[in-house]
Amino acid sequence: MSQQVVTRFAPSPTGYLHIGGARTALFNWLFARGRGGKFLLRIEDTDRARSTPEATQAILDGMAWLGLDHDGDVISQAARADRHAEVAQQMLAAGTAFKCFASQDEIQAYRDTAKAEGRSTLYHSPWRDADPATYPDAPYVVRIKAPREGATVIRDAVQGDVTIRNDQLDDMVLLRSDGTPVYMLAVAVDDHDMGVTHVIRGDDHLNNAARQMMIYNAMDWPLPVYAHIPLIHGPDGKKLSKRHGALGVEEYQQMGYPASGMRNYLARLGWSHGDDEFFTDAQAQDWFDLDGIGKSAARFDFKKLDNLSGRHIAATDDAALLHELTEFRNAADLPALSTEKNDLLLAGMYCLKERARSFPELIDKAEFILASRPISPDEKAAKQLDSVSRGMLRELTPHLQNATWSREDLEATANAFAAEKETTFGKLAGPLRAALAGRSATPSVFDMMLVLGQDETLARLQDAADGGD
């Protein structure tokens, strides 16, 4: 029986959930979920000065919005410090680590001399093979015994084999002089203890893999599969930063992108499956593999995000879309809507969701539902309501009172009225839009009538017809 796949996302809680971190989480989630595996969440909160509960909550909120559910409890790295130290002590006992009593001044002097002589400044401690009988009664750090000969090969599922000469690896510190574990030790121990089979993370961690492998090898633990994914760049090819726009996931929620569109877009950022651009979660889980991840940095493209978001909004079930729209209004601090308005939104969703690329665009199209009588037309719409068009609306109203309020009947009534007046329905549409929505860009006039219902439609037309008097 093959081993169960276990992936993990391990952010540092020092701020919001970065868009790059969100993509890393998504890749880990897709890889695990598509293979019936586990996706774990570990908060790397060992930097006590910079880690905050608020930042941890921001990460959890960002993942919840993206729909990236994790298995089991959230693991705090800081809470496991005793276990990390225990592993360092095991390595000391096995002779794969040693106590180093060198002071900072001695280390700096060594590096200065090496630099002056044109040698590598990697520190070689004189305590590496010292007799314990010679140990002084003084503070010490615990260092790993790095291999001195040969090379370390990181067999990376994305980057291919990456070879690092062992003379480039130092006897890195595992425990500081106060007994606290360093990040490299904590990560390796946690990944092993959590049973992580695949470490999928940004390629800025590639060099860390060689150092973490030293701990795995010293402890005789099986290595995970490493997959280091390229970072995300802005449209200009430079590392993604504030000047390119939003960096935090919650900002995208506040801008009104649907979570499904965001997942689809982030999945396509650096990973591909043939020519497929638009796909569902089920397809992404089914298709996602490490083979499809490119080696070069992906470029963030807002036009593509807009396009995919629009397609996901159009494809989403109406009730689910209303639920997400409500969540967006909360996130964007917009006032809650009445049950009556929500019912109308649900009824009108079929004509609102086509070609809306974000929730603000959908809300804009829904202005005819969200507005209340009397409708105040904007400047452009007001120009459609002159005395002639108001008179036409006044004359049209009795015809509509007798309509059965089906689309066919409404269209037939409006066209017959236009013919009677020796004009076209196109000439009537502008005033009707102004009367029903107060603006000139709206869904179809007949869709608005159907959604608003006969009483509200007639009342709005009457208001507009009487407006100039």
Describe the protein.
The protein has four domains: 139 residues, HUPs (Rossmann fold), CATH 3.40.50; 151 residues, 3-Layer(aba) Sandwich (Rossmann fold); 50 residues; 88 residues, Arc Repressor Mutant, subunit A, CATH 1.10.10. 48% of the residues lie in helices and 10% in strands. The chain has 20 helices and twelve strands. Helix 12 packs antiparallel against helix 19 and helix 19 packs across helix 20.
How much helical structure, as a percent, in the residues?
Answer: 40-55%
Q: Helix- and strand-based class?
A: mainly alpha
Would you identify the CATH architecture of the largest domain?
3-Layer(aba) Sandwich
**Cα-based radius of gyration, to the nearest Å:** 32 Å
Mean pLDDT: 95
CATH superfamily of the largest domain: HUPs
Number of helices: 20
Kindly report the CATH topology of the largest domain.
Answer: Rossmann fold
Largest sheet, described in full? Answer: 3 strands, parallel
**Uncertain ranges:** none
Spatial strand arrangement across the major sheet: 1-2-3
Beta fraction = 5-15%
Motif ('HIGH' region): 11-21
Motif ('KMSKS' region): 239-243
GO molecular function: glutamate-tRNA ligase activity
Family: Belongs to the class-I aminoacyl-tRNA synthetase family. Glutamate--tRNA ligase type 1 subfamily.
